[in-house]
Design goal:
Layout (H helix, E strand, L loop, with lengths): L1 H4 L3 H9 L6 H10 L3 H8 L5 H10 L7
Length: 66
């Protein structure tokens, strides 16, 4: 799996242990290989980010709000 993810075996071992020193890119590579594309896409989808949408709404000028 490390080879497919393009990371060292030591890095994969750190990911398996939940080591916070591993870059997000390393974690992302492994998650994509494991087939989590749809879940990652849903996680990053702006339309499902209620807090982000609320903050955007607050930043809009009053005359544009619906």
């Amino acid at each position: 799996m490390a080879e497919r993810a393009g990371i060292a075996r030591a890095t994969l071992s750190k990911i398996e242990k939940g080591d916070p020193s591993v870059s997000m890119a390393g974690y992302l590579s492994v998650l994509l290989i494991l087939g989590f594309e749809a879940r990652l896409a849903a996680l990053a989808a702006p339309e499902t980010d209620e807090m982000g949408l609320a903050l955007d709404e607050e930043r809009l000028p009053r005359r544009i709000r619906g």
